[in-house]
Automatic annotation (TrEMBL):
SUPFAM superfamilies listed in its UniProt record: PHM/PNGase F (SSF49742)
Pfam families: Cu2_monoox_C
Protein's recorded name: Copper type II ascorbate-dependent monooxygenase C-terminal domain-containing protein
MF terms (GO), sorted A to Z: copper ion binding; dopamine beta-monooxygenase activity
């Protein structure tokens, strides 16, 4: 398996992730869809497997999110050290959002020693806990996505015999997306943490990778809606003003890579991307924001032997998890992965978080009021 081959490899959500395979969650009631996070207490972890131990990490001090540039979203990165003195494998994780009212998602990136030094410097020169990091870990070079959490997810266990390689001295960046759209969230603090499930290098586990497959979003304003941001160019410029120039270019890069530069406005968008290296897919998730209706990930659609990796015809933002496939799926060079998402601009008038915002032409963006279409696959290279 290969990481995303388009120029947007650094999209790294990124924004959250996942939803279940198998039996999808029921669609939210039309009168009150996607109402927000469901705090609740996290269920206890599963028993440790042979060779595993728990490593508990948390923010040393509470952090008070502050959305920059007039927005309502704060992406904050925190450097955390699991204290690994020998080669290890990350075989599971259980993120513990201390303030679920404002935590939209969390992603954990493994850093090499040079990146860890760079991250420590960014932390040191930034007031307060952590540093701002829209879209990625905020350090140079490729980082490995080794864990994540989104609403509805509990403990995530890697398949028996597999894990993410953690060389000695590996450190992690914990990227947390804070959403401040809800009334009363301004000034609230968070001190989230994570319980890692770690196995020693002598366990002879096989390594895993997380591979990302995005598609563009070209969702016009709903019938009857109007305003300056219903203009596509104005909406893209607004994304760039809130999250930086790179964020403002993401939709254009997706359009170039997925449809040869042709913009096709509509509720449903897809993107086909080739596999360049052989491997086996073990887990899958899909990610959209509050206007998401359905997401599907397919292998070789329209060809003999085509398979559906993930199909969620009724997407629920508050029920997201990375889950094992019923049966692992082998892939090879020349195969194609297609991700397809359907969004619904009419939901904007039904969602408490979005009702107070002006109508907009929705494109790919980091904010909760923007959208994403992302397939997430955990695979073992051959």
């Amino acid at each position: 398996m290969h990481r995303l081959l388009l120029p947007v490899a650094a999209l790294l959500l990124v924004a959250a992730c996942g939803t279940t395979t198998g039996t999808p969650a029921a669609a939210p009631a039309v009168s009150n869809p996607h109402t927000g996070h469901s705090p609740g207490s996290a269920p206890p972890p599963a028993p440790l497997r042979d060779g595993e131990r728990f490593v508990d990490l948390a923010l040393p001090q509470p952090y008070t999110p502050q959305a920059p540039n007039g927005g309502t979203d704060d992406y904050r990165c925190f450097l955390v050290d699991p204290g690994l003195s020998a080669t290890s494998y990350l075989t599971g994780s259980r993120f513990l959002p201390q303030n679920a009212a404002i935590v939209h998602h969390a992603i954990f990136y493994r850093l090499d020693p040079k990146q860890a030094t760079e991250a420590a410097e960014a932390d040191a020169r930034t007031p307060g806990e952590g540093w701002t990091c829209f879209g990625d870990a905020g350090v140079q070079g490729q980082t490995a996505w080794v864990a994540h959490w989104a609403p509805g997810a509990g403990e995530t266990l890697m398949p028996a015999g597999y894990g993410f390689s953690m060389p000695p001295g590996s450190k992690l960046v914990m990227q947390v997306h804070y959403n401040l759209l809800e009334t009363g969230t301004a000034g609230q603090t968070d001190r989230s943490g994570i319980q890692l499930r770690v196995a020693g290098g002598t366990s002879s586990l096989k390594g895993l990778t997380t591979d990302l497959f995005p598609a563009p979003i070209e969702l016009p304003c709903a019938p009857g809606e109007s305003g300056p941001l219903c203009d596509r160019d104005a909406a893209i410029a607004d994304v760039g003003s809130r999250f930086g120039a790179d964020a403002g270019q993401q939709e254009g890069q997706l359009i170039q890579g997925c449809s040869g530069g042709k913009v096709r406005p509509g509720d449903t968008q897809h993107c086909d991307q080739p596999i360049q290296k052989p491997g086996t897919i073990y887990m899958a998730a899909g990610h959209m924001h509050l206007l998401g209706r359905a997401i599907k990930i397919e292998l070789n659609p329209g060809k003999p032997g085509a398979q559906t990796i993930l199909d969620v015809p009724q997407y629920n933002f508050d029920n997201q998890a990375l889950v094992p496939l019923p049966k692992p799926i082998a892939v090879k060079p020349g195969d194609t992965v297609r991700v397809t998402c359907t969004h619904d601009a009419k939901l904007r008038k039904l969602l408490p978080q979005l009702q107070k915002l002006p109508p907009r032409y929705v494109v790919w963006g980091e904010g909760t009021s923007d959208e994403m279409c992302l397939g997430i696959l955990v695979a073992a290279p051959a």
